[in-house]
């Protein structure tokens, strides 16, 4: 979409819709967002991180979203908010070129089973497939090449981008966003071994996503073996995340890229899992736990707080020395115990 086609607001309208205090020209038109360094005279920038304060004096933006404490340092019109990053999030939605777009209806190449139920203003893109018994709520968008399996239910306002796959009997809440390549409801990794070969265990459960969930590109959420895999309201899942069968993720939690959660683990509400975090199976993680990036969790966590494992990167020569020391830890611990025992005697 060209710059000329982007939504245009006056600074006064923007301030009103953000609940911000405007210092400047209320009639000045703006039509987009940009960084402090790159913003032009018809764009709004924002300052939410003090590390970028040095770029404020040189900005060419029409206005800057910032905290009142930085207002006097701003050389252009300003929109003052106590939480400028939250203001930026709201402004980004106002200037989203997809927002307010008229639905395109059902593409002629789409395949929609006659038994499917479609709400008002539903859009189904080219080569998409809607199977039997599907229910799509009002304002649902199914992107090109996406597949919605039999008896799946999708709540109002949810958007599937191109090439999303929903297996059968999946439930997706309202206002969700599913990005390209994500797969919801594939079989969980369930097999029984007889000593020489594997035997598949049919996965008889489903997947239920709550309202306002976002799933990144290339992520997979497996269906339950018996009960359902459950993702709570307002959960945000980044790209390349694997959630195994019968996992439960509580409301308002966020999972960064490449997180892997093994089967039947329960993650509480308001939890944050950093990039590359791995959770072993059948664990319980309580509410308000943060696990930092690349950590491996093999035991349940019952107290809120920040948890880490692994070591940060270092020069290879130093890492090699430390690796040798690590192999010696058990011997050192035994020698220390003998010394302490002798001292106590």
Describe this structure in words.
The protein is of the alpha/beta class. 14% of the residues lie in helices and 26% in strands. It has three helices and 37 strands. Strands 7-10-13-16-19-24-27-30-33-36 form a ten-stranded parallel β-sheet, with no helix packed on it. It has a ten-stranded parallel β-sheet with strand order 9-12-15-18-23-26-29-32-35-37, with no helix packed on it. A nine-stranded parallel β-sheet has the order 8-11-14-17-22-25-28-31-34, with no helix packed on it. A hairpin with a 4-residue loop joins strand 20 and strand 21. The N and C termini lie far apart (81 Å).
Supply the helix-strand structural class.
alpha/beta
Summarize the amount of helix as a percent range. Answer: 10-25%
Number of strands: 37
Shape: flat
Report strand %: 25-35%
Count of DSSP H/I helices: 3
User: pLDDT under 50 segments (min length 5)?
Assistant: none
How confident is the prediction overall: mean pLDDT? Answer: 95
Describe the structure concisely for a colleague.
It contains three helices and 37 strands.
Secondary structure topology:
Layout: E1 9-10, H1 11-18, E2 21-23, E3 29-30, E4 44-46, E5 63-66, E6 77-80, H2 84-94, E7 111-112, E8 117-118, E9 123-124, E10 129-130, E11 135-136, E12 141-142, E13 147-148, E14 153-154, E15 159-160, E16 165-166, E17 170-172, E18 177-178, E19 183-186, E20 191-193, E21 198-200, E22 207-209, E23 214-215, E24 220-222, E25 229-231, E26 236-237, E27 242-243, E28 248-249, E29 254-255, E30 260-261, E31 266-267, E32 272-273, E33 278-279, E34 284-285, E35 289-291, E36 296-297, E37 305-307, H3 316-344
Parallel strand pairs: 4-5, 5-6, 7-10, 8-11, 9-12, 10-13, 11-14, 12-15, 13-16, 14-17, 15-18, 16-19, 17-22, 18-23, 19-24, 22-25, 23-26, 24-27, 25-28, 26-29, 27-30, 28-31, 29-32, 30-33, 31-34, 32-35, 33-36, 35-37
Antiparallel strand pairs: 1-3, 2-6, 20-21
